[in-house]
Amino acid sequence: MASLAAQGENTKSISAYGEARSTVQGRALDAEEVRKMNNYFRASLYLCLGMLYLRDNPLLREPLARAHLKQRLLGHWGSDAGQSFTWIHMNRLIKKYDLDVLFISGPGHGAPGILSQSYLEGAYSEVYPDKSEDTEGMQKFFKQFSFPGGIGSHATPETPGSIHEGGELGYSISHAFGTVFDHPNLITLTIVGDGEAETGPLATSWHSTKFLNPVTDGAVLPVLHLNGYKINNPTILARVSHEELTSLFNGYGWKPYFVEGSDLQSMHQAMAVTLEECVKEIRAVQQQARSSNKPFRPRWPMIVLRTPKGWTAPREIDGKLLEGFWRAHQIPITDVLTNPDHLKILESWMKGYKPEELFDANGTLIPELKELAPTGDARMSANPVGNGGVLRKPLNLNDFQKYALRDIVPGKTVKGGMANMAKFLREVVSENMTNFRLFGPDETESNKLAEVYKAGKKVWMADYFEEDNNGGNLSPQGRVMEILSEHTCEGWLEGYILSGRHGLINSYEPFVHVIDSMVNQHCKWIEKCLEVEWRAKVSSLNILITATFAFISPPDGNTLLSVMDHCLRSVNYVNVVVADKQEHIQFLSMEDAIEHATKGLGIWDWASNDQNEEPDIVMASCGDVSTHEALAATALLREYLPTLKVRFVNVVDLFRLISEIHHPHGMPDPHWKAIFTDNKPILFNFHSYPWLIHRLTYKRPGQHNLHVRGYKEKGNIDTPFELALRNGTDRYSLAIDAIDLIESLGNTGSSVREKFIKFQLQGKKAAYNDGVDPEYIRNWNWPYPKNA
Amino acid sequence: MASLAAQGENTKSISAYGEARSTVQGRALDAEEVRKMNNYFRASLYLCLGMLYLRDNPLLREPLARAHLKQRLLGHWGSDAGQSFTWIHMNRLIKKYDLDVLFISGPGHGAPGILSQSYLEGAYSEVYPDKSEDTEGMQKFFKQFSFPGGIGSHATPETPGSIHEGGELGYSISHAFGTVFDHPNLITLTIVGDGEAETGPLATSWHSTKFLNPVTDGAVLPVLHLNGYKINNPTILARVSHEELTSLFNGYGWKPYFVEGSDLQSMHQAMAVTLEECVKEIRAVQQQARSSNKPFRPRWPMIVLRTPKGWTAPREIDGKLLEGFWRAHQIPITDVLTNPDHLKILESWMKGYKPEELFDANGTLIPELKELAPTGDARMSANPVGNGGVLRKPLNLNDFQKYALRDIVPGKTVKGGMANMAKFLREVVSENMTNFRLFGPDETESNKLAEVYKAGKKVWMADYFEEDNNGGNLSPQGRVMEILSEHTCEGWLEGYILSGRHGLINSYEPFVHVIDSMVNQHCKWIEKCLEVEWRAKVSSLNILITATFAFISPPDGNTLLSVMDHCLRSVNYVNVVVADKQEHIQFLSMEDAIEHATKGLGIWDWASNDQNEEPDIVMASCGDVSTHEALAATALLREYLPTLKVRFVNVVDLFRLISEIHHPHGMPDPHWKAIFTDNKPILFNFHSYPWLIHRLTYKRPGQHNLHVRGYKEKGNIDTPFELALRNGTDRYSLAIDAIDLIESLGNTGSSVREKFIKFQLQGKKAAYNDGVDPEYIRNWNWPYPKNA
Q: Xylulose 5-phosphate/Fructose 6-phosphate phosphoketolase N-terminal domain spans which residues (chains A, B) (predicted)?
């Protein structure tokens, strides 16, 4: 590509091959240390290949045969060497400086690199005793990897020390920052793959330094691993000049130290001296900030590690490039089951690491290598932060009832539930100043939660202007974390929770879908954790969304308080709470709200008149505005058809609608029937897609009687009133629908009267232009007169 | 914040206030030009405020009264001035250099800034004649903005010249690059908000320069608008030093030119000379690359424009900061309806722009200002690229049937449908070398589509290494676009389609959810475009996913070909095609496949034996592997219960299951009944969530007879066989279920025989460990003997 030479880039200069080249010069190791560390590295690499290929003959004491291989080869070799290499070098510094270090593997599919470390350190055998530190244990350790009934090929929850699976790429740096906030002694060493570095979420997460306070937070030490290739392509960052790379990271606020090459001896020296320099710089920054108690934003150190992809593999096989090319990404030699020559190549490659020099006759790592790793909790594979639930302390929560909205006349009182709840949240912040944070993409103020700033302002470590004193609410010591990237907010929160703390993210419904898939990954993580015995439960991920509907939709202010209290106490869930931020009619006293929120759904007696009898119709709702509409329709039915028996059901937690077999919040069919009946029409008002309710209930008895009114379409600019008319959820439409349903089942004696009423209502609807359902509800004579 | 001064940053130096400071020095305008441009700018700003506030009295010829105001104030002021300012300065250069320029507004909620331009240029009145260039038209133009029945507050599809709404932030740069690929003369001027710049998708999209060939592509000219504040927070990039900002953009591969300040006279000079420098640099790069035909990657020019948020608004109102603070983000003075003093402030602010000097007695822009803008298609508000459908030419598609898989024995032949379809795709590329591209996050090779590289390699404008000659498939002239950021791929593709071309994105199912919300935004855009009369339809967004299920799931290779051909010809859809990439049993000849794909679903006669009779059961499937399983179960029923009448239905397009009322692909109930019956059991095998099928069919007659078998859970490592067993979709489970269903309806005479068979099958199932459904299917004696 001669034409590209015009840009003046000497591409040779950034080859991954040859003697080490590094920003920091000098030597930190003597020859004996290099020898031992390299042997430890060989042991790691041997284990990596063992995991990828072997189900038997773990130490190759017999000639390698097809029968020793797994029949289905799955897993990744490409980044294993670079990750192991980095881990081993950090081990030296943990021992030397007594550091507290967590390891996050961005390229989590390079799991063999991590798993090999936890096995060599003994942490693996401690939690999985059958994977013992001997030949037999090693065989099991190898076989289970990417094997049916075994473990996956990422840094999954089964991996000791891991809080980051690395499946959906892009979140390593934001997770890492989440772990170090309010953990002043922690350094989170984070490998960022150069593939991952191309994702959007990762690209913006480098800016997290503008939110890290060196006095009270720990530090993230990123190692950008320029492995050079993705699955089938080169990576961008491995194909730009040193100058551009340096500029990019300076611009992000980091100080990159390069370590590049393939020669083992010199690479060990370069990495040792560079990593040590980074650790010293981090400690110097922290020392300066803490001794003066003056937080500042330094240019934090990071490492750019350029090594060949699949480092230490054969460079070529049959004239095709392997090491240093994309073919090294997954299983490096794929046809060993069918190609005896390639099986030979694999065998001699593995034997080249000389396992007989590294493991004793028993198959145990020899003592002079064993002692290179730290012990106990100092091991990165056993750091308690990597199993954050063990560090988790429940929040210090005062009684939320002191913030109760009082003197509620159901259906009459109007108050703002969200702004009131913010007072409770303010106290949650002030009572938990080192283990609770509020996150969001700049919606906290507009969501009416600004009250929390009285307890903790917004964290800001970038520059300050004079204007900030006039309504800025910024502080290096803040407790609210706001960056416009939802991905970064969510990543920080996940990291914060997974490392044993508590938090809440708040956003606006239309924007929260940006992180749908990210939240799904977190759900899968915590679900899988339940199957891993040694994992302690972490705090729930609480998502507070302003909108008028979702899975947990408190109908009023006291229910919102009770729900929030519950969410903040819960573990191992993802709670999505949705509430509108405006003032609304209130329905429940604190006592009733607690009962209602605890049940998750229930009959509202005060709005029903079917006591001790079968209703003619069940009116149901979920969400605040839809509850208003359904109540208004109920009042209308009451006004025009006073003898009709109406049951009013409100749903807070939609998961209650599912069978208890399919969701822990679910309820059995008899319970469902007692509330909804199995033979009466149910008119369910709901401000999202009707199919969602059908999806949750399609197996319920009488579900064919269930009729959902909800979102059909939305115009450019809709008032709630316009939206109700458009979607047929205004009170007249709902009441007419209710009459239709009752008639269709023939549940009332004479239908002549109903037909007449329906006709009357249709006329009213045509002239209906006040749109003031709230006023109509408030003016109705609640509670509903019983058996009128 | 004295403590922050320690980092050596003189924050004063990056204030947005004062005389202009700029990287490029000099003057490009004489005093008369400055005067006119500033008047044009005043006219723009006046219109912006008019849109936000007024429903009457558009030129303030009467004293401003409450009755002239909209009753509900919605819209954004914050970025309007900076966007208008940039637009006006580009107008000068369009005229001077005869440029072809499209404008993309990243902060699309600053729509007044854009709308004011299209109104001043006359483009608005051309497409909406009632919004004429006079007082009456201006009144309508103002009133409709953010008003019920009017237009939204973003750069929505109704906005002439817009292809980018800017609601969900982060995609302006990737959209912009999409528009300039293969449009060598186009410059897309792109405003990037400093809020948007914090998002992940935007942060990585700066790297798009590594994929732009200056010989055959146009150029993107970004203007990073350091407006300073988001909704309630400062922005990161406005609070770091010049040094960091310069480094960051140098690192991304750009050359930033700063233009900063608030003084109008000097800012006009600075912007004029800077924008002109950028345009000249772009032309110089293009000239060099094109005259030598040697593509290279320069450091492309960009502008960093720092102006106060809400520029030209009052600095303070009642002691609270407005201009240059976050309060200027939306409606700048919110209480004008209730606060007469503030109404006065608004009036004098608006009158300060002196509309009487800018618009004549008729309310029309005066000629000396009108002539500042370009005319006809040269106007950014009328650039045909902004209504890409008018430029769209159908693809040159040869007959896909020449790639038919031939000699298909249904249920016997095994071939790879995806690898075969790649040959068709190769020809699509080679026959459409300037208006079709294939996009993806590095899955093209593993998706078995590498055949396309023969027609067009992967675009690569970063550095090349020697290894690339050995399997790299990279070229500056490539046609395949691969970056690991799904957001960037999708953004490029959207921009490419919306500017009148064709494309296809391919990915792997688990990763595609990262862009779920982004695709939803595109759906909303094209849906809304249907309501805008002057918008021409654009090509469909085609998404090809490897997995074993989705909405369009061709069951075999010939159906896949036919479906792809259809998608590539279609307009205004989002087509999601899902297929497995492995070799599979084939079922349909090309002729049958075309018919089947056209119908979207159908009875497979050759696998059914209910001809001219009612079936005892309907076996249905969607997707390749699930079709195998359902056919294997059908064969099993045939083997054990030869007199049973089985109808086999295969679904290609799931939207066929919906009523035609709710989806254009839907079908009416009688048609549904003719295929599925309304009284026979239907056993639907499906490799995704069962509720999805129920959601699509819950209103169908006989839907309570529909029983879906599908995804329940997945372990770490599953073969298709293990997955089938786990989820009960193996042939024995399905056949046993079928018998149960038939019995439950009492549709067969004697159930003793069925009970016995069921017992037999359960025994077989317990011993079932071959897992080779494909072999079982192939060994069955198809076609199904009729009425045996």
A: 30-390
Identify which of B147, B246, B458 has the shortest CB distance to residue A717: B147
C-beta atoms of A198 and B516 within 8 A: no
- Give the integer Cα–Cα distance in Å for B131 and B119: 8
| A787 contact B CB<8A | no
Residue whose entry in the numeric block shows the structure tokens 């792997």: B508
Q: Measured between CB atoms, does A327 come within 8 Å of chain B?
A: yes
Q: Is A232 on the interface with B (CB under 8 A)?
A: yes
How large is the ipTM?
0.89
Q: A225 has which bridge partners?
A: A193, A305
**Nearest residue, CB atoms, A446 vs list B170, B232, B463:** B232
For tokens 């269930």, name the residue: A706
In whole angstroms, give the CA distance from residue B697 to residue A691. Answer: 10
- Tell me which residue of A521, A550, A526, A530 sits closest to A540, measured CA to CA: A526
Class of residue A509 by CB neighbours under 10 A (exposed 0-12, middle 13-18, buried 19+): middle
Residue whose token pair is 């700018």: B41
Nearest-CA distance A215 → chain B (Å): 12
Closest CA to B496 of B607, B655, B385, B572: B385
Distance from CA of A728 to the nearest CA of B (A): 16
Q: Which residues of B touch A239 (CB under 8 A)?
A: 210, 460, 462-465
Displacement of CA B460 from its chain's centroid (Å): 23
Contact between residue A224 and residue A238 where contact means Cβ atoms under 8 Å apart: no
User: What is the enclosing helix (H) or strand (E) of B140?
Assistant: helix B135-144
Spans of chain A below 50 pLDDT: 1-13, 548-549, 749, 785-788
Maximum C-alpha span of chain A: 101
Domains of chain B: 33-387 (3.40.50.970), 415-585 (3.40.50.970), 600-779 (3.40.50.920)
- Picking from A662-671, B209-218, B522-531, B720-729, which range would have the lowest pLDDT averaged per residue? B720-729
Nearest neighbour of B463 by CB, restricted to A4, A246, A460: A4
Across A69-214, the runs of DSSP E, i.e. the strands, are 100-105, 186-193
Q: How far is CA B628 from CA A74, B341, B669, in A?
A: 25, 75, 28
Q: What does the pLDDT look like over B470-482, one tens digit per residue?
A: 888 999 999 999 9
Q: Torsion over CA of A674, A680, A681 and A686, rounded to 10 degrees?
A: 0
Three-state secondary-structure class, residue B166: coil
Q: What is the biggest distance separating any 2 CA atoms in chain B, rounded to whole angstroms?
A: 101
Q: Give the tens place of pLDDT for each residue, A63-99.
A: 999 999 999 899 999 999 999 999 999 999 999 999 9
3-state secondary structure (DSSP) of residue A510: helix
Chain B positions in Cβ-Cβ contact with residue A476 (cut-off 8 Å): 1, 3-4
- Residue numbers of A between 454 and 513 with CB closer than 8 Å to B: 458, 460-465, 467-468, 470-472, 474, 476, 482-488, 510-511, 513
pTM of the model: 0.90
What tokens does A546 get?
């302003």
B265 pairs with which residues across the strands? none
Distance from CA of A325 to the nearest CA of B (A): 8
Q: Is the pLDDT of residue B660 over 90?
A: no
Among B535, B537, B542, B539, residue whose Cα is nearest residue B519:
B542
In chain B, residues 156-175 whose CB comes closer than 8 Å to chain A: 156, 167-170
Q: Where are the alpha helices (DSSP H) in B480-623?
A: 486-498, 509-512, 516-529, 557-569, 590-599
Residue A223 sits at the vertex; the CA angle it makes with A220 and A227, to the nearest 5 degrees, is 155
Report the sign of the C-alpha dihedral through residues A27, A29, A31, A35, in that order. Answer: negative
